[in-house]
């Protein structure tokens, strides 16, 4: 029993570390005046995928807690905050459509990932 708990805790630490690293990377990407990725016409898809990945990493990092609603609200607020801050960053702009794509990615991840995780593990 203790060995199983130890494995779960180690897994949670790994997922929490990955979430933190991805959160920092995404923040840097979203708030930097210069982007590494040239977005062009695929901008909304990149927002959906980027925040879907953030939602996925958050769900896996905090899977042991029943806090999906709080997690979704926090990530959606973070997405809105990044859009507001982008208004003040040279070369960036505020976009409600970007925020909606972010929100869609978060919600899809938070709804689907726990079901897939339960089925696999």
Q: Which regions have little confidence, pLDDT < 50, spanning 5+ residues?
A: none
Oligomer: single chain
- Sketch the major β-sheet: none
CA radius of gyration is 16 Å
Distance between the termini: 17 Å
- Structural class category: mainly alpha
Helicity level: over 70%
Report on the structure:
The model has no long low-confidence stretch (mean pLDDT 87). With 121 residues, this protein is mostly helical. It has helices at 2-31, 43-61, 68-86, 96-120. Helix 3 packs antiparallel against helix 4 (96-120). It is built from 4 helices and no strands. 77% of the residues lie in helices and 0% in strands.
Q: How is the topology of this model organized?
A:
Elements: H1 2-31, H2 43-61, H3 68-86, H4 96-120
Helix pairs in contact: 1-2, 2-3, 2-4, 3-4
Summed up:
With 121 residues, the protein is an all-alpha fold.
What distinguishing features does this structure have?
121 residues, 4 helices
């Amino acid at each position: 029993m203790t060995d199983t708990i130890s494995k779960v805790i180690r897994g949670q630490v790994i997922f929490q570390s990955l979430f933190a690293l991805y959160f920092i990377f995404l923040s840097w990407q979203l708030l930097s005046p210069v982007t590494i990725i040239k977005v062009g016409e695929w901008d909304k898809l990149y927002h959906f995928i980027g925040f879907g990945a953030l939602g996925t990493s958050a769900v896996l990092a905090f899977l042991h807690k029943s806090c999906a609603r709080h997690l979704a609200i926090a990530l959606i607020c973070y997405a809105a905050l990044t859009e507001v801050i982008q208004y003040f960053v040279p070369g960036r702009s505020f976009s409600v459509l970007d925020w909606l794509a972010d929100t869609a990615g978060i919600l899809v991840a938070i709804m689907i990932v726990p079901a897939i995780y339960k089925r696999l593990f």
